[in-house]
Amino acid sequence: MNVPFNKPYLTGNELSYIEKAVKMGKISGNGYFTKKCQQFFEENFGFNKCLLTSSCTDALEMAAILLDIKSGDEVIVPSYTFVSSANAFVLRGAKIVFLDSLEDHPGMDVDKIESLISPKTKAIVVVHYAGVPVDMAKVMDLANRFSIKVVEDAAQAIDISFQGKALGGVGHLGTFSFHETKNLQCGEGGMLTINDPGLKKRAEIIWEKGTDRAAFFRGEVNKYGWVDLGSSFLPSEVTAAFLWAQLENLQRIQSRRSQIWHDYSGFLASLDRSYIPKIQHLPYLELLRNELDKIQEEFSPIVLQKDPGNYHMFYMLFPSLESRTKFSESLKSKGILSVFHYQALHQSEFIKAYQGIDNTPLPNAEIFADTLLRLPFFYELPEVSSSCI
After folding, report:
1. Which end of the chain is more exposed for a tag (fewer CB within 10 A), N or C?
2. Stated pTM of the model
3. Quick one: 244 and 356 in the same domain?
4. Per the UniProt record, which residue ranges are transmembrane (predicted)?
C-alpha cells in the first residue's frame, strides 16, 4: 500500500491554458490569465483589490512593506504557524510578539491579544489555521481601538467566510497560498488582497518592483519610473494559467474535499465495528482505524479534528509526542504517510538569537507542536462510502 500525504490535483485544463498563455505572446506576468484570476476573486469573494504573487510568502512580504514596518515596530503573530507569518516582518526589522493558541484548537487565542499590545504595536497577523475562522469581530475591534493594522494570513483559508464576509477580506490586508498542498494550487503561488482602499495604489507599485509600470500600461502616466520600494512579486502567466484551471473547478474541488473530511471524521470516530461493508479502497481507512485502535490501547485520549473549516486538512491530537511518533511510524511502515505540522516559532533557535529568549510561556502552542498529526488529504484520496459510517 502506498498513500502519500499529498498529491497535487489536476483538473485537466492546466496544460491547454498554459499553451494558450504561451501562444498569446505574453508570459511574464500581469497578462490575460493574471487578470482573469484576480477578477474572479474580486467578483466572487468581494475582495476590494487582488494581486497575484509568486507565493503567500511574497504576499506577506508585500504586506510588511505596504504597512511601513520598520525597526522598533512590534507585530503580534501566533506562535503556532508557518515561519513566513513572522519572517516577512522580521525582514523589515520588526520585533515579533508571539501569541498562544487556544486550549482546544491550534488557532490563535484572540482573547489574549490585547494584553500583548503596546505603543510599539504596528500590526496583528491573524492566521486562520486549518481554514477555521478566527473571531475577526474581536480582532477588528482591537485594531480600531488601538489604530493597528490587521493582516489576515489566509494561506489555508480559501473559500470560507466569517459573518458573511470571505476570510482574507476582513482585515486591512489578506494573503493566500496556492502551494501544491492547498485546496487550490498552481505548484507555488499566492495572492495579496487589499481591503483598505487607501493602500491600493501603493500596493500595485510595490508589486511592480517599486515602479508605476502598471499605471503606464493602463495609459494613466506617459512613462514609468522607480517611485517606491518594491520587488519582483508577480507570478508568470504560466502560473496564472495553471491557477485559472483550478479556479474554474473551485466548487467541485471543495465538494470532494468536504466528502473526504467527513469520511475521515465519521469513519474514524465510529465505535460500531459490527458492520463494515467491504468496498473498493476500504482497506486503507480500515487499516488506519485499526492502527488507531492499537495506539488507543496504550495511549489515550486521542482527539479528532472537530471543525472542518474549509476542508483544508484532517488532523488528530495525541496525548504525547511519544504516542504521535509511534502512530506515525506505524502508518509509515505500512505505506501511509502522515506528517506533523509546525514547531512553535517562539522556541526556534533563530528567533532566540534575533531578539533574545522570551520566557513568556505559550503552553498551548507547545503542546500542539508535539501532539498534532495530519493525515493524507488530497482530491484523489481513496474514499469510503458514507454507507459504512
Report:
1. N
2. 0.94
3. no
4. none
